[in-house]
Design brief:
Layout lengths: L1 H16 L6 E5 L8 E2 L5 E2 L1 H12 L4 E5 L5 H6 L5 E2 L7 H4 L15 E3 L15 E5 L3 H10 L5 E5 L2 H9 L5 E3 L1
Length: 177
């Protein structure tokens, strides 16, 4: 139901904003599985891609996916590199100063994810641990403000898949996501 409401809201905006037959350039961060990632043949897929595709179908446009590193999403939109961002972006007061948002189409609260043997009872309990976060994300803002001040080492990454790779390689104790 939320998917249909989002499609209707964006459809109304897009119908007036785009000339008939024009492609809709959609910014995505293809490193954020399961929301947006690539199939083995390089095709974008995932929840946000499904949302964008449903919107394009509704407004009778062709989605053209533009891959954009996360920290360049809003600057790229403002520079008109693409028409919309559909890439799991949290609504914040800072971001609202620059761009408009539709209503939320899902809610995924963030969590600190740790190895099973690490007991978490607050930021102090993970002092000295190394946590990975996506650069320019709400998780990075939280980690730098709330965890780093308690002695947690924060490593910021340009892409979410880099965080996952370093977790698997044992270079991080876990991540904020």
């Amino acid at each position: 139901m939320k998917k249909l409401l989002l499609a209707a809201a964006i459809s109304a905006m897009c119908v007036t904003a785009f000339a008939a037959g024009k492609d809709l350039k959609v910014a995505i961060d293809a490193t954020y599985e399961p929301f947006t990632y690539k199939t083995p043949d390089g095709k974008p897929t995932g929840f946000d891609v499904d949302i964008a595709s449903a919107i394009c179908e509704e407004i009778k446009r062709t989605c053209v996916f533009v891959e954009q590193p996360w920290d360049g999403m809003i600057p790229g939109l403002m520079a008109k590199k693409y028409d919309v961002i559909i890439s799991s972006m949290s609504i914040t007061a800072e971001r609202l100063k620059q761009v408009d948002f539709t209503d939320k189409y899902y809610n995924t609260p963030s969590r600190v994810v740790l190895k099973k043997d690490v007991k978490y009872s607050g930021p102090e309990s993970i002092k000295g641990k190394k946590i990975g976060v996506l650069k320019a994300s709400t998780q990075e803002k939280y980690a730098l403000g709330e965890l780093k001040t308690k002695g947690v080492e924060i490593v910021s990454y340009d892409a979410q898949d880099q965080v996952y790779l370093d977790i698997k390689a044992g270079r991080l104790d876990r991540h904020r996501g």
